[in-house]
């Protein structure tokens, strides 16, 4: 499927995407839309179209499957992202990574700032870079500001894995991929991670692949 026309009005481009029905095509690394800061959302879609677009992002995220999806990942350069994480992982992993369930929520015009200086490093992947993972050191705790799809203000502190998710998705809206922040010596296929580095924390990977953790 061809990407929406780059210079068409955003509402028209979203309508074109939604017309096909089902999960939306996910844009892979190499497309300029993933490398440009997205436009602030200022009502470009209108309430009804925004609701349809948000639902399409949710369906696409579930189908991928993933725990977050930003509008640029489906070719739409707007500062909108969705997250949801049922956290279906063993308790040992959940504890090590601070991974707790997150309900579905919409982030509109989100920005984050670190809370404190602690950082945590874990393998991370991206729906726009399929088949690969790498270790990324991120802020362990962040304050996220923005709004939801109803325009209600968001000002919340996220810790652990939820903090990682909101950083990853907000980075997408700034034209940043996780690889820009990754320890590239850790870059591994999904199969290698599963076979060799599936421990709750990446200490063995750091030793085996020769990189340092924070």
TrEMBL record:
Record-linked CDD domains: Pep_deformylase
- GO molecular function terms listed in the Swiss-Prot or TrEMBL record: peptide deformylase activity
**Highest rank taxon of the organism:** Bacteria
CC cofactor note: Binds 1 Fe(2+) ion.
The cofactors it requires, by name, are: Fe(2+)
Kindly state which reaction or reactions the protein catalyses. N-terminal N-formyl-L-methionyl-[peptide] + H2O = N-terminal L-methionyl-[peptide] + formate
Question: What positions does the entry give for Fe cation binding?
Answer: 126, 168, 172
Q: Pfam families of this UniProt entry? A: Pep_deformylase (PF01327)
Q: Which SUPFAM superfamilies match?
A: Peptide deformylase
What keywords were assigned to this record? Hydrolase, Iron, Metal-binding, Protein biosynthesis
- EC assignment: 3.5.1.88
Q: Which residues form the active site?
A: 169
InterPro entries (alphabetical): Peptide_deformylase, Peptide_deformylase_sf
Instruction: Please report which protein family the annotation says this sequence is part of.
Output: Belongs to the polypeptide deformylase family.
Its function, per the record, reads: Removes the formyl group from the N-terminal Met of newly synthesized proteins. Requires at least a dipeptide for an efficient rate of reaction. N-terminal L-methionine is a prerequisite for activity but the enzyme has broad specificity at other positions.
Q: Which NCBIfam families match?
A: PRK00150.1-3
Q: What is this protein called?
A: Peptide deformylase
Q: What is the phylogenetic placement of the source species in the record?
A: Bacteria, Bacillati, Actinomycetota, Actinomycetes, Kitasatosporales
């Amino acid at each position: 499927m061809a990407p929406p026309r780059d210079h068409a009005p955003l509402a028209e481009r979203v309508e074109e995407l939604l017309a096909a029905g089902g999960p939306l095509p996910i844009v892979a690394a190499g497309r300029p839309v993933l490398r440009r800061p997205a436009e602030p959302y200022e009502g470009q879609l209108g309430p009804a179209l925004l609701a349809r677009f948000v639902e399409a992002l949710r369906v696409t995220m579930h189908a991928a499957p993933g725990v977050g999806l930003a509008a640029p990942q489906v070719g739409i350069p707007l500062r909108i992202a969705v997250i949801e994480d049922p956290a279906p992982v063993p308790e040992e992993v959940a504890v090590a990574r601070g991974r707790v369930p997150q309900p579905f929520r919409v982030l509109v015009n989100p920005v984050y700032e670190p809370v404190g200086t602690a950082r945590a490093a874990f393998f991370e992947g991206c729906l726009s870079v399929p088949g690969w993972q790498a270790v990324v050191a991120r802020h362990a705790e962040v304050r996220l500001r923005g709004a939801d799809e109803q325009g209600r203000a968001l000002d919340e502190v996220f810790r652990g894995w939820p903090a990682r998710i909101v950083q990853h998705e907000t980075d997408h809206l700034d034209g940043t991929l996780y690889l820009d922040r990754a320890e590239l010596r850790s870059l591994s296929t999904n199969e290698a991670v599963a076979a060799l580095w599936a421990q709750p924390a990446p200490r063995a990977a750091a030793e085996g692949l020769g990189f340092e953790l924070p």
